[in-house]
């Protein structure tokens, strides 16, 4: 029998989906190349915004009509199980907190298909390091799905990391709802975990996933020290969410705009050239024209390498869903302005890299060629075919707002 794990949403969900695939293979199920070719589909859901939720519900209906046996996992399995069961009443619904029981549920419901199968390891691997977070943001349905912070065992994570390297992984993405909060509940810390990973031999790259600014403040110095090792990307994704302190308070974020900017300034002083990615939510309930103008100004002040703009989406069960909503037309117009300003700013930032040569890792195949990542996790597209997992030198020739164009070179890399 064959299976297919279909994961949506964040890197964390993708990493957990791979773990579920390994569980299926351990019971003798063969991995199919698509849902169409599978006997069992594991639908690993996301519900972070309303459009994604609607897509999940549509996909459930499609799978039911196809006659596939379906297992539903991910955030909807916890936050909205009744919506799942309406469409798939006979399917197992397994929330993230119950993944330890996944194999047992499959064995009981569908049986053992044969001897264990070892899935091949690609050049990229995702390592979830914790469940939940320390926050209680007023808009976040993920908190309802994932709960409070529960840090995974340090030694078990190292064993998992070692297995990735042994299998040929060259890029490992360390992920959680808030990576910088790792260990806050048990005396461990993200710098301690990363230090042990970097003690391993080999030429690989580690990327730190999304981290709440309030958590990064506590571990900034430890992270900065580790970024002297070129195997740790000099990159952090720290979502600010708004340029207005009034909106941040309504969101229940635990920092001010100026404290966020101080953090960024400290990081840039500690790690010259560090790549900063951030997120902004547009049209949060109660957001005024003045609040929006502050977010526009923040983009220009911050000069981040990447800014992700998301229009506010009311999620059931959250406090923000009960607040006075910004009209769709206003939110759309504000989103367009934020996007225009962020594209202009990112293009200006990227233009400063033209002419420089970097040591890069080939990570994926894109529409225009091979996508490389330099030591700052900046994407450089080269039109040459480069085997994934290969390290090469590339010169930046042109800048776009969201990526760079380059050519392979034997020149001196940075």
CATH top level of the largest domain?
Answer: Alpha Beta
* Tertiary shape: globular
Judging by the overall fold, what is the CATH architecture of the largest domain?
Alpha-Beta Horseshoe
Rg result: 22 Å
The total beta strand count reads: 17
Tell me about the largest β-sheet. 5 strands, mixed, barrel
Q: Fraction of residues in helices?
A: 25-40%
Q: Which segments are poorly predicted (pLDDT under 50) over 5 or more consecutive residues? A: none
User: What is the number of helices?
Assistant: 13
What number of structural domains do the residues give?
3
Strand line-up in the sheet with most strands: 13-14-15-17-16
The ordered H/E elements are EHEEHEHHHEEHEHEHEHEHHEHEHEEEEE
CATH topology of the largest domain: pyruvate-formate lyase- activating enzyme
Structural class: alpha/beta
Percentage beta strand:
15-25%
Describe the structure.
The chain is of the alpha/beta class. It folds into three domains: 109 residues, Rossmann fold (3-Layer(aba) Sandwich), CATH 3.40.50; 228 residues, Alpha-Beta Horseshoe (pyruvate-formate lyase- activating enzyme), CATH 3.80.30.20; 52 residues, OB fold (Dihydrolipoamide Acetyltransferase, E2P). It contains 13 helices and 17 strands. A five-stranded mixed beta barrel has the order 13-14-15-17-16. Strand 14 and strand 15 form a beta hairpin. The longest helix has 24 residues.
Short overview:
With 414 residues, this protein is of the alpha/beta class.
């Amino acid at each position: 029998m064959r299976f297919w794990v279909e994961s949506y949403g964040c890197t964390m969900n993708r990493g957990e989906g791979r773990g579920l695939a390994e569980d299926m293979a351990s019971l003798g199920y063969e991995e199919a190349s698509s849902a169409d070719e599978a006997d069992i589909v594991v639908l690993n859901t996301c519900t972070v915004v309303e459009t994604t939720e609607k897509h999940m519900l549509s996909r459930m209906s499609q799978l039911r009509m196809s006659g596939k046996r379906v297992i539903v996992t991910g955030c909807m399995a916890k936050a909205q199980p009744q919506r799942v069961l309406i469409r798939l009443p006979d399917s197992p619904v397994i929330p993230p907190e119950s993944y330890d029981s996944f194999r047992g549920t499959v064995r009981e419901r569908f049986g053992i298909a044969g001897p264990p199968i070892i899935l091949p390891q690609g050049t990229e691997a995702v390592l979830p390091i914790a469940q939940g977070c320390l926050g209680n943001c007023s808009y976040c349905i993920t908190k309802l799905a994932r709960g409070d912070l529960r840090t995974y065992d340090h030694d078990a994570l190292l064993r998992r990391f070692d297995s990735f390297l042994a299998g040929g992984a060259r890029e490992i993405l360390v992920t959680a709802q808030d990576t910088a909060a790792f260990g806050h509940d048990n005396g461990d810390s993200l710098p301690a975990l990363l230090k042990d990973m970097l003690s391993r031999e080999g030429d690989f790259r580690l990327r730190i996933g999304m981290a709440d600014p309030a958590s990064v403040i506590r571990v900034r110095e430890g992270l900065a020290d580790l970024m002297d090792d070129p195997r740790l990307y000099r990159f952090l994704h720290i979502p600010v969410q708004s340029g207005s302190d009034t909106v941040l308070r309504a969101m229940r974020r635990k920092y001010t705009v100026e404290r966020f900017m101080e953090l960024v300034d400290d990081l840039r002083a500690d790690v010259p050239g560090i790549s900063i990615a951030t997120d902004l939510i547009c049209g949060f309930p109660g957001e005024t024209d003045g609040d929006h103008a502050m977010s526009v100004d923040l983009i220009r002040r911050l000069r981040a390498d990447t800014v992700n703009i998301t229009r506010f989406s009311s999620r059931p069960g959250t406090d923000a869903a009960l607040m006075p909503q910004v009209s769709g037309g206003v939110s759309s117009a504000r989103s367009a302005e934020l996007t225009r300003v962020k594209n202009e700013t990112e293009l200006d930032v990227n233009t400063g890299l033209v002419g420089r040569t970097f040591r890069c890792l080939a990570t994926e195949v894109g529409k225009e060629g091979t996508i490389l990542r330099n030591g700052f996790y900046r994407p450089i597209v080269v039109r040459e075919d480069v085997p994934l997992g290969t390290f090469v030198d590339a010169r930046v020739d042109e800048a776009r707002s969201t990526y760079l164009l380059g050519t392979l070179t034997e020149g001196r890399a940075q």
